[in-house]
TrEMBL record:
PROSITE patterns noted in UniProt: MOSC (PS51340)
InterPro entries noted in UniProt: MoCF_Sase_C, MOSC_domain, Pyrv_Knase-like_insert_dom_sf
MOSC domain: residues covered: 18-168
Pfam families: MOSC (PF03473)
PANTHER family cross-referenced by the UniProt entry: METAL-SULFUR CLUSTER BIOSYNTHESIS PROTEINS YUAD-RELATED, MOSC DOMAIN-CONTAINING PROTEIN
Record protein name field: MOSC domain-containing protein YiiM
Lineage: Bacteria, Pseudomonadati, Pseudomonadota, Alphaproteobacteria, Hyphomicrobiales
Gene3D superfamilies: PK beta-barrel domain-like
Amino acid sequence: MTVRVVSVSASPSHAFSKAVRDEIRLIAGLGVEGDAHMGVHVKHRSRVAVDPTQPNLRQVHLVAAELLEELRAGGFHVSAGSIGENVTTEGIDLIHLPQGTCLHLGDVAVVQVTGLRNPCVQLDAFQKGLTAAVLDRDAEGRLVRKAGIMGIVVQGGPVRAGDPIRISLPPPPHRSLERV
């Protein structure tokens, strides 16, 4: 399977879903140009309420197209950008990448993976039962968060649907992703 960007999305407001765009521009150290979550410090409202000076480890939200397909098969009406992601990917098991992995999107942009998106009640407000649908248990009974991953922009540049993705793993030992 090809490892690529399927879709890109952004929203200037704190709306749950993000509008699909032809192109987004990533800005190093900040995030997606024109997106409500862009900035050096945390922009997610629940985190701002706790401490607005926290570093923004959630500048870019990535979701696998395979998750969206799984959700549609389960009866949910989802498409690219609908669960708030900026980049929809194909061919990558995002949630099992190690912390610190760099995703080279297109020719220039680089996003460093910081952690897992923690599913929240906004998912159920969008569609009843969606939160439970993006949570699972592994063989040992540990909680698996499937709602995508978060990252910071290491190198800026344009990102478009169809762009290839190259994966650079960090040096060992690898650390599993935790929620950020």
